[in-house]
């Protein structure tokens, strides 16, 4: 496998290139200062952009790491010159050299549409530009969070000042707040030759796997929420149960099988919001006429979800996570399984739900659920809790309704 890399003198490149060499790949390095590259990486082929054709012909992949980062301020034009214009120049050079695949390395900051910084804006424009100019080249956008290596840079640079014995615990604490990725994972992805992801993009993170700080913190939040509801708002639960019983025939609580972590089915508890005898189906498949008068209020205020505190205490569900589906929703179950969504606890509310994506579109929902898994952290989860509390995540729309119910 032959890989061409631009921007190898940056933090990510300096740590990824040696790992590629360990994997048996000697990448071709492109930069404005080939002599500096040769000093950093002795023995590797290093050249200026105008000599790329003779060095890179026949390569399988070009990885565009060169970037104007957000470590120093500057006007939008300066960021666009590197993150947009240079990226397009390198893509055209790759096309002229017959390189079949081109990876534009971006940042998860660019995924946040509310982030209007020159850096995030330029990265969004760069991704759009290279995708539009792809032609027959397989172009993909690789979104990275803060990168973990032997040393740290960017938002994690403060860890370099700590004694080595404290860096590990401190890193896991900071990594629990927001997503991170290791240079080992980046190198492994490039070596794997994996094709472009859906929509020609891939969010590459550690997804908090193995981070005990994140796991313990969010379970504490879950249990605190459950106990607060049970001890402080038991009267709301009692009032809702009485209202449901008086409004229509049937029980006050409604237990429904749902698909949980690792595909294990559990009973999810809610206040009954539909007429007794309503078919077991996805909410979007149920007629609006099936929702009771009190049920409509409970669903609108999310009070119908409160009995799930019992599921939280049993460890079957979390406050935030992908919304659990029915076992009969086999397409959604399979789409989630192949994207690793079933590896995490489902949630009472989640990213897709607050964005109004319901189970009527299984592929779109599973893809957004996978985004949540990749981007989760204590701070993103807390933001989702606040968005839910402010009225986001009204739940799946029942058939025949134009708004959430």
UniProtKB/TrEMBL annotation:
Any single GO BP term: polysaccharide biosynthetic process
Domain called NAD-dependent epimerase/dehydratase: residue spans: 3-143
Bacterial sugar transferase domain ranges (all copies): 219-389
Entry's transmembrane regions: 223-244
UniProt entry keywords in alphabetical sequence: Exopolysaccharide synthesis, Membrane, Transmembrane, Transmembrane helix
Domain of life (superkingdom): Bacteria
GO MF annotation, one: phosphotransferase activity, for other substituted phosphate groups
Similarity comment: Belongs to the bacterial sugar transferase family.
PANTHER family, alphabetized: COLANIC BIOSYNTHESIS UDP-GLUCOSE LIPID CARRIER TRANSFERASE, SLL5057 PROTEIN
Protein name, entry field: Lipopolysaccharide/colanic/teichoic acid biosynthesis glycosyltransferase
Taxonomic classification: Bacteria, Pseudomonadati, Pseudomonadota, Alphaproteobacteria, Rhodobacterales
